[in-house]
UniProtKB/TrEMBL annotation:
Belongs to the CdaR family. InterPro entries: CdaR-like_regulators (IPR051448), CdaR_GGDEF (IPR041522), PucR_C-HTH_dom (IPR025736), PucR_C-HTH_sf (IPR042070). Residues 284-340 form the PucR C-terminal helix-turn-helix domain. Residues 116-234 form the CdaR GGDEF-like domain. Signal peptide: none annotated. It holds the Pfam family GGDEF_2. This is PucR family transcriptional regulator. The lineage of its organism: Bacteria, Bacillati, Actinomycetota, Actinomycetes, Kitasatosporales.
Length: 353
């Protein structure tokens, strides 16, 4: 009974408007339409569903009907249609405004979460509204494809539907940022990010996914997000084509570049002589890359470069003569391989050291 009275509280003046419309066979005045729209907005802001409100409007119309002259009663259906249309317009307008405000608040929260631009205590409070408990540890996965994606895109909806169907409401946040798909999940739910990676790779038509390590607290989300972004950047520089990259597996690369000048000196000293070769250093550097990537198997490296084994062997000998380091020698191989990794990280020889 209380709920019914609450709903009918937003029908103020409705019966009088219906009676006036029926008796005069006119249409709503601008003032009446504005009043009905205002009632609809207030009802939406109070959280009352449109279905219950329309039912209440129809019930009120039934109560008005017996008191109308017969000629006026014939106009009742038209009057109800006009009044409910104006009321629903206001209700929908308020709903759309609320949705835009909610989306703006969500986007602001995501920006603050991923860039750590807000007070951590306040950020943790806001996070609960969006399903995250920042007192726990989280990990972040980032997926990028051949084109940018945003909220509402078919790719985003497909991945979100798959996650929801598989895991339900497990405090997962799926969003987009700078054209990439992003998933934030509790550290104790590793299957969530694994599933996200699989679905995002497929939905983005072979895009690449990077997963950061898990870290505690609000700052941990930022840390994991940055690790995932760095892994994608590293994959681009190192030509890593694995569909899923784990930041934990790539920690050696930041270590190697922590002292950039030392790495540049190593590349210059060890690989610099390759620039004396006909065609420059690039072909011989590609040779070393393929050789090391295939586990130092000459035949397999030759196939990767579309060379004969004889041509591959010649190139390795040429590298030995120019650098003084033998790729086949276990001790000298380590120095060469480290220098090759450094060259890829620094973009040499395309970029000057």
């Amino acid at each position: 009974m209380a709920e019914r009275e609450r709903v009918e509280g937003y029908l103020e003046g409705y019966a009088e408007i219906l009676t006036g419309l029926c008796e005069t066979r006119r249409r709503l005045t601008p003032e009446e339409r504005a009043a009905l729209r205002s009632l609809g907005e207030r009802a939406a802001e109070a959280g009352i569903g449109l279905r219950d409100l329309i039912r209440a409007h129809l019930s009120a119309a039934q109560r008005v009907h017996p008191g109308l002259p017969r000629a006026a009663a014939d106009h009742l259906l038209s009057a109800v249609e006009q009044a409910v249309d104006a009321f629903a317009e206001g209700h929908e307008r308020a709903q759309h405004l609320a949705m835009r405000q909610e989306e703006a608040a969500r986007r602001e929260f995501i920006d603050d979460l991923l860039y750590g631009r807000s007070d951590l205590g306040r950020l943790a409070e806001r996070a609960e509204r969006f399903g995250l408990l920042l007192s726990h540890a989280h990990a972040v996965a980032v997926a990028q494809g051949r084109e940018p994606y945003s909220d509402g895109y078919e790719v985003t909806r497909a991945v979100e539907s798959s996650l929801t169907a598989r895991f339900g409401n497990r405090r997962i946040l799926l969003t987009t940022k700078d054209g990439r798909l992003i998933c934030v999940a509790p550290a104790d739910e590793p299957a969530v990010l694994a599933h996200f990676a699989k679905q995002a790779h497929a939905a983005t038509d072979g895009g690449q996914v990077a997963i950061g390590r898990s870290h505690p607290g609000a700052g941990g989300v930022v840390h994991s997000y940055e690790e995932a972004l760095n892994a994608l950047d590293l994959a681009a520089r190192m030509n890593l084509d694995e569909p899923v990259l784990h930041a934990a597996d790539l920690l050696v690369y930041p270590v190697l570049t922590r002292d950039r000048q030392a790495m540049a000196d190593l590349v210059h000293t060890v690989l610099g002589p390759l620039q004396q070769a006909r065609g420059g250093a690039k072909p011989l550097l590609d040779t070393l890359t393929a050789y090391f990537d295939t586990g130092c198997v000459t035949a397999q490296a030759a196939r990767r470069l579309n060379l004969s084994v004889r041509a591959m062997t010649y190139r390795l000998d040429r590298i030995h003569r120019l650098t003084g380091a033998d790729p086949g020698d276990p001790v000298q191989r380590y120095t060469l391989q480290t220098a090759v990794v450094g060259a890829r990280l620094l973009g040499w020889p395309d970029q000057p050291l």
